Amino acid sequence: MTGDLRQDGELLALAARGDSDAFAVLVRRHIRSATILATQMLGDQDDAEDIVQVAFTIVYERSSSFDIRRPFAPWFFAIVRKLAMNHRAREIRRATLLGIWQRLRGNSPVAQSHATASADAAIDVDIVTEEISRLPRMQRACFELVAVRGISIGEAAAMHGISESTVRQHVFRAKQALSRALGNENESASLRGAQRP
Fold first, then answer.
1. pLDDT tens digit string along 112-147?
2. What would the CATH number be for the domain defined by 119-192?
3. H helices of 70-109, where?
4. Among the CATH numbers 1.10.1740.10, 3.40.50.1100, 2.60.120.280, 3.40.50.970, which is that of 1-108?
5. In terms of pTM, does the model score above 0.70?
């Protein structure tokens, strides 16, 4: 957040009238959360930053048509989500076409991906990281935003287009799963210690 106390809608209305400073405040206020959201969806920081730049360009271009009586964040994050989903769909299509082209040339990447997956599976990770990776996608996303990155419940809800109570549920369930996993791990460690001569 910036020190500017003006509401998002007011800043956007000023930006629509050519106030670039007001738009800069809006960008600084939301760029971090938007980049986290896009990175969660795409798994790539550079792609996420590109998506967020495009999203802010769209916001600027449509600023004059925005209804300032409505909250800005849900509208903005919906733009980010749509751009990220479109980008991901394009990447999937591109990878599919590349796979077909490589098979036609007799250079299938299947063996390479199996080798990579085996190497990844062999990596020894701590119990928390492993358990977080097992959480359902939305639980993991909400837990990361709220518990790890310190994003507010309200902002996390706006980022994913869900209610605040749903965010709270996801975070609560994620914490429960992690507590159970840590409890089981501690219990296993105690048993291993007790079995030593």
1. 444 444 433 333 345 667 777 888 999 999 988 888
2. 1.10.10.10
3. 72-104
4. 1.10.1740.10
5. no
Instruction: Show the tokens assigned to 185.
Output: 């791990």
At 90, the pLDDT band (50, 70, 90 cuts) reads: confident
Q: What token pair was written down for 99?
A: 């796979």
Q: Which residues contact 23 (CB under 8 A, 6 or more apart)?
A: 11, 12, 14, 15, 60, 63
Matching residue, tokens 């730049």:
53
Cβ 153 vs Cβ 164: under 8 Å: yes
Domain layout of the chain by residue ranges: 1-108, 119-192
